[in-house]
Structure formats: structure tokens, C-alpha cells
């Protein structure tokens, strides 16, 4: 999963939904997908193919049909391992697979439930947040074995719930998300169903680390249809739901939004293990993920009472417009609701770390810009270039601390 956009609005409700998804089933899938045996499921690796075959086996067991006699749908792409060097001669064509299963209810419209199953492999693709990542297994238990397990268990639920949904359901696990949404882009360019018949797309990325204290769940894409906000607000749940309107974000729902399809993207929050070798299975909240998936079921089943959802274009996140020539090397807490930018983590060797910024600091000023929210931070960051010297002011244990910083 890529760095996330910012939060726009909040709603809260207090009741829980019935358990349909079993935590032990999720643990079984995640324990395999995020095991050292699969070496981080790097795109196009032999171990990613092992993961693809595992997903295909689960789809078959759930009773899903396939297309062209295979659950694997291959695609090719060109990848530059030296992506910052456009003159590199190492650009090669690679092959990878999306995994697709279909629940055919002989309906007019189809919904898509998806998640990416690739991760960072052994840390050679320049996406790791570890100081010295190369050769280390990045298991990606939350990112995104959690979402992949969610797709598998939702396939089991909808295939075996003895109901006939008013939609067909297409279950897709995407490859290449970590390299730039490659699998979902390729799939939307060559889909197995007419995209004009797709009602909406549900995406899950990093849904395995629910905080039992705050119970925050972030839902992106609520502005992509006029139905989403009132529908979500009508649901009873134990969660504090944080809503973001944008259809464009750092995961595979973006590819479907760009085809004028309403989307929702579910996420339980950033954490200090993001894109690091420490994103391991023992840190997953299996009961929490089970509850999130039950909430997603309730969301989907609520749409049965609506006609085909209307699509709305949304304003793109400002982060996608800004040209960033530098980085501070911090991980923002995207669920933080106070004033300023709460720091979830600091990367060793980056400008913030060298300046003395610490985890749990709250950035309130960067340079001459007061930082009240993540939008202010992104605007401020976009004004700097490599080598610039400035100041970052943070709130630390109730005291203001001003630190010199060099980008």
C-alpha cells in the first residue's frame, strides 16, 4: 500500500454487527501468505506465484467459477528497478498474475471485491521504510495479506450464505500494487466483465491492525456516489468511522474510479511496521479484522435496496497535485483528529531523524508555514528542495520544541 491521503469527515456509531467471518479462518490465510516461506510475495517472484495458486485454490473451494479455465489472469509490464534513472538499461518486461473468481447470480450488474496480494519481497524495490532493507523478508501481514484474506473469506461468505444476491460478484486479488497499481490498471484495461455493468468496487488494503481502544476504520471514496454517505451513516457498528471523499487514493480502488465506477476503500490505519520487515502475523488483530469484514458485508447488503449507484467525480487529494522534491522521512498518523501532524514513525537516516524529530511528536510548523493538518504539511513540504535548511516546530509532551532541519 502507498502513502495514504488525508481525512475529510467523521461519523460515529455504537452497535456491533453479527459475526459472519471467523478470526481463525483469517489467521489461517494470513499465516500462510505472510510466512517466511513466501519471502514477501514480491511481484513476479516464484513465491508470489505460490500465493496466487493458494488464492486460486481457495476460490475453487468456495465454489467460484473462473474465466478461460483458470483463476489466474496473467499480464505483462515493464519495470525499471532503477526508477529514478530514466536512462537505465535494466528495464525488462515482466509477467505477473491477478487472481479472479466469479460468483454468477445471473444478474444484470456486478460488484467487485478486491485487494492486492503482492508485497515488497526481499526489499530490493526501493519501497521499504527499513534503513537497510535489502535481503530482508518483508512479510506484509497487514499489507496486504490481511486484505487478501478478507477477499477469500468474503468469497466464502457470499458463496455459502444460502442467499441470492441481486448482483454478480467478481472477486479479484491484484498483483503489482506496490509497484504502482499495476495489476488493477491492467485488469481494468482488460476486464472479464463489461465495466459498464459494474455497480461499484470494494477495496481492502491494510485492514488487519484495528486499534481495540479507538476502533477507528477509515473509508475512502465516499464521495464517488451520492449513496455512500447516507448509507454508511445508517449502519450500526462498533466503529468510529472516518470518511474521505476522494476516489483517487494509494490503492487499487483508484483504477476502478478512473473508469467512472463508484468505489469504497477500507483501511484500519497506519502503523510503525508499514513497509518494514516487522509487519508480521503476530501483530494482526484477527478479531478486529473479522469485525471489519462483517461491517463490509453489512455495507454491501445495504446496497441491495438501491438501484445501480450513480457515479460522481471527486476532488483529487492535494497530495496528488503537489510536487515533492524532498521528504522528511516521517510516517503521519492519518487517524489523528487534533491540530497539527501527529508522527507515527520516523525513518532512520532521513531529515526528520537527523533533526531529532521523535515518534509521537506533533508537527505544528514547518518552515514559515503553520501546520494545522496534513494538507498544511504537504503544502509546506512541496516548497522545499534538496539541500534547503529550515526549521520544524513540534509539540512534545506539552512543550514546543524547535529543531533545525536540512532536506
Description:
- With 407 residues, the protein is α+β, with helices and mostly antiparallel strands.
- Helices cover 24% and strands 23% of the residues.
- It has nine helices and 15 strands.
- Helix 5 (228-234) links the parallel strand 7 and strand 8 (240-244).
- Helix 1 (23-33) crosses helix 3 (141-160).
- It starts with 8 loop residues before the first strand and ends with a strand.
What strand order characterises the main sheet? 1-8-7-9-6-4-5-3-2
Main sheet specs: 9 strands, mixed
Number of strands: 15
Spatial extent as radius of gyration: 21 Å
Q: What is the general shape?
A: globular
N-to-C SSE series?
Answer: EHHEEEHEHEEHEHEHEEHEEHEE
Low-confidence stretches: 3-16, 318-322
What amount of the residues lies in strands?
15-25%
Would you tell me the overall average pLDDT?
90
